[in-house]
Predict the 3D structure of the following.
Amino acid sequence: YAEPDMKIFALADFHLSLCGDKPMTKFGDHWNDHPERIAQACRDMIGEDDLFLIPGDHSWGLRLDDAEEDLRFIESLPGKKVLCKGNHDYWWQGIGKVRERFPGLTFLQNDAVHFGDQISCCGTRGWSLPSSPGYSKENDEKYLNREVHRLKLSLEQLNPKAELKIALIHYPPLYSNDLDTPFSDLLAEAGVDLCVYGHIHLSKSGRLDVSVLNGRHRKVLYQLVSCDTLKFVPWELDPRKLKSRPAFLEGAEATS
């Protein structure tokens, strides 16, 4: 169940390699010591009863054994942690085995998780959109259609009574110059209140070169939460930005 004073946080794209050799500093000095910075910020901000949304690209590990230390790191962070798959999460194979090994994490795959009648979360990986740089109909359309179907399956599992409906999607479900996409259509039609996403990163020099959407579109609040764009500090939901504030969040305001 959602606790009366539950807060909602999100952060994506940890790209961990704690037992491997994939230093993220090759993508810019702003990635220096990023696991330690994430851990410290999470412990400073997030309580054990808070909700922590983590939409994809958790570990560079190719197999579940390779990702073990990275997922234990995420499991050790505070809050009720809900994860969806990212494009680099190759270890995410056999959802039953993944869930059994990491009971402290909730993995979304064609389904949803509920916190009483207050919050319901669904999610999927997503895919490149026709408006994405490098999109190829020949190479991408079948994967895009598959992910649209997976989102539909996940949305169908949302609790229709939930006061707050949340979707986690790794890829941007739309860009700021998109009128609509198959993902945004489904999210709006399902009455989703909040969609958090990642995948987009700063350039090596620390610039955001993509026109992302942080704000409401057709009543859905969209927020990019890839960790480098947030200086490795979790984003906190300010309920005032939602189309309507759920009763259980009455009086709650973001502290950051």
Observations:
- DSSP finds five helices and eleven strands in the chain.
- The first strand starts at residue 8 and ends at 10.
- The mean pLDDT is 90.
- Residues 8-242 form a domain with the Purple Acid Phosphatase; chain A, domain 2 fold (CATH 3.60.21.10).
